[in-house]
Amino acid sequence: MVHFLTLEGKKQLEEKLNYYKTVRRVEVSKKIGIAREFGDLSENSEYDAAKEEQAQIEAEIREMEDILLTCKIIEKQEGKSDTVQIGSQVKLYDEEFDEELVYKILGSTESDPANGIISNISPVGSALLGKKKGDEIKIRTEGGEIVYKILAIN
Questions:
Q1: Global pTM?
Q2: Domains of the chain, CATH where assigned
Q3: Which has the closest alpha carbon to 97: 149, 31, 44, 42?
Q4: Three-class SS of residue 60?
Q5: pLDDT in tens, the chain (154 residues)
Q6: Would you say 3 and 70 are in contact if contact means Cβ atoms under 8 Å apart?
Q7: C-alpha–C-alpha distance, residues 71 and 74, integer Å
């Protein structure tokens, strides 16, 4: 699977990976060492918790490494594009609620729907890709159908 990242998103992920490898691993290793001193490991809840935390950290490190190995950088577009692409900011009109919405479409690693950043594989993001200003998109959801009109693409 290809992971789409902005250059900034890639740098942030690299920094987070470095932090996990250099700080978090050391922290959990110390926790394991302290827990070992408590004696019998078969009944040592601190040791079990530290080992679980270690497994979680290692899983997150593997996931970040995988993303960085398979990522594709979203290039900044020169000028305006007439179609929605990964990296586009799209202004939409929701007729049902009579409101305008603005979404930036990025890869799933950087998505933050609460702040208007949606994934290219989300229902709205995937429905927008390739569309042009003035197009209407229809998205089926559990609550019914949502219809948006594309007002602008930046």
A1: 0.76
A2: 3-73 (1.10.287.180), 89-153 (3.10.50.30)
A3: 149
A4: helix
A5: 888 999 999 999 999 999 999 999 999 999 988 888 877 777 778 888 999 999 999 999 999 999 999 999 987 666 567 899 999 999 999 988 999 999 999 999 999 999 999 999 999 999 999 999 999 999 988 888 999 999 999 8
A6: yes
A7: 9
